[in-house]
Amino acid sequence: MAQANAQRGSSGAAEARTTTRIQRRNRRIILDAALEVFSAHGFRGATLDQIAAEAGLSKPNILYYFDGKEAIHRALLTDLLSTWLDPLRMLNPEGEPVAEIMGYMRRKLAMSREFPRESRLFANEILQGAPRIEAVIRTDLRALVDDTAALLRRWADQGRIAPVDPYHLIFSIWALTQHYADFEAQIRMIRGDDTDPTDGAEAFMDTLYTRLLAPR
Amino acid sequence: MAQANAQRGSSGAAEARTTTRIQRRNRRIILDAALEVFSAHGFRGATLDQIAAEAGLSKPNILYYFDGKEAIHRALLTDLLSTWLDPLRMLNPEGEPVAEIMGYMRRKLAMSREFPRESRLFANEILQGAPRIEAVIRTDLRALVDDTAALLRRWADQGRIAPVDPYHLIFSIWALTQHYADFEAQIRMIRGDDTDPTDGAEAFMDTLYTRLLAPR
DNA sequence: AAGAAACTTGACTGAATGGTCAACGCTGGT
DNA sequence: ACCAGCGTTGACCATTCAGTCAAGTTTCTT
């Protein structure tokens, strides 16, 4: 860790860093290439040369924009995390409970379909024990989940949804939606490579959660 | 690929290979150590030195028993796959449909709890696109799933379970059970490190599938 | 007991890979 | 038109890591 004048990110001092047009463009190109490579091969499996090739830039040029492999990975995860948690934040406590939960499920499934690379990047990180995002999970995500669980329990107490363990309800939505992105390879091999893995998934999950949550 | 007289595995010729006591013991030790390391760091992230250290053997000794890193990994996956598919094979077409499906779900969940390392090894492989087990998935697993799906559809046609997409039903069981092993780190960080991640999972899934499958 | 075969390892090697550096564009402001 | 500093890269390092080898030690068989 030394030079790299082209720093940005949350750790930079309060100077008015003038990011040029070229900087913005190249950083985006690099992050996109890195997402492609990291999500396909994992952190250790990815090489700077692969990222450079994918980005169409030279390796030293990559390192001109980022402090190292680790820094690129960190930048990706940081960007990802807020995006990843957004659907959960959009739960409206004032809304109709079942519709709200279904909406969350659909948003999450849509993200798996639209951002499978991000999903795999995240899955890889958690599989390794989440060493690089442990702090965020223990604080931000945990608080968000606790709040949501409390809301779900309130809804259950009011008899507006069936009483179920709110944590497992949330985990089940994560599990199902992640699965369609992370295990896409397996699903394709079983259902045929030409089928969209998420085909029918929404209908299935719709039925699943409608029956689970219907107040009795 | 050259020497390594201590070969075994499914590719060996039909000679009566006399595996000694030491060979059996050390191979088991190596595979166990490799499972530990591969499941924690992925294929590329694992090193032979780590495996050797974990096994308490020297690196050349590891290579005396296996043809290379790749061979160890292949051996693990091969061993794993049959174990992994067993619960599905145990579905009894003559049994009571809902009870059979619940039984499958419970067996799968039990495996996630008892063999989280195997689960993560498998998840890692699929995440990378399943390059090393693609053949088995496309043949054995696919056939097994197709058969099971046909059985489920028959049960639905007979009105013994609610009509649901059989493939997504199977995928959902995989997704939920794998999640508790593969995303254990995340679950622990959210629910507290002292809680068993699968606590309450069985009850939740029980409710979930009971309501989904109840004939209407 | 002794020879053969099985087992073990310290010391290497070659390739891959993250990162550095000095030198060379190129561009925008004046 | 010029030049300061941003942008770019070929050529290099240092380290890591899979795999080799020759020389040992242990175990089995008779």
* Cα distance spanning the termini of chain A: 60 Å
| CATH architecture heading of the largest domain in chain A | Orthogonal Bundle
- The level-1 CATH class of the largest domain in chain A: Mainly Alpha
Structural class computed from helices and strand pairing of chain A: mainly alpha
- Average of the residue pLDDT scores of chain A: 92
Oligomer: homodimer
Number of helices of chain A: 10
Strand content of chain A: under 5%
Low-confidence residue ranges of chain A: 1-16
> How many β-strands of chain A, per DSSP?
0
Q: What is the fold-level CATH name, i.e. the topology of the largest domain in chain A? A: Tetracycline Repressor, domain 2
| Coarse shape of chain A | globular
What's the structural blueprint in terms of helices and strands?
Two copies of one chain form a homodimer.
Chain A: H1 21-45, H2 48-55, H3 59-65, H4 69-89, H5 97-114, H6 116-127, H7 134-157, H8 166-182, H9 184-191, H10 201-213
Helix pairs in contact in A: 1-2, 1-4, 1-6, 5-8, 5-10
The first copy, chain A, binds a DNA duplex (30 and 30 nucleotides) through residues 2-3, 5-6, 20, 22-23, 26, 47-49, 57-61, 63-64, 68-69.
